[in-house]
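pinging the channel bc i need a second pair of eyes. not urgent but kinda urgent?? the chain im working w is below, pasted from the shared doc
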Amino acid sequence: MEEKNELSFEEAMKELENIVGKLEEGDVPLEQAIEYYQDGMKLSKLCNDKLKNVQEKMTHIMNEQGDLEPFEIQEDE
């Protein structure tokens, strides 16, 4: 399998969906199923890490000096 850190979120999700499809077919030998499961868990962690990274970036906004600061939504009173 390709190095997981090089995959984009979309590539990792596609590969994960492919693995899930193979496992759902049910005719995968046990050893192969375990390997698919382990690969799937790695891909799942990769996707989760990428989402957390994006979420963290979304909660910050760059100020006029180019520094990141927390983003706060101003609600109408």
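so The two ends are 54 Å apart (CA to CA). and The chain is about 60% helix and 10% strand. — does that match what u expected or am i reading it wrong
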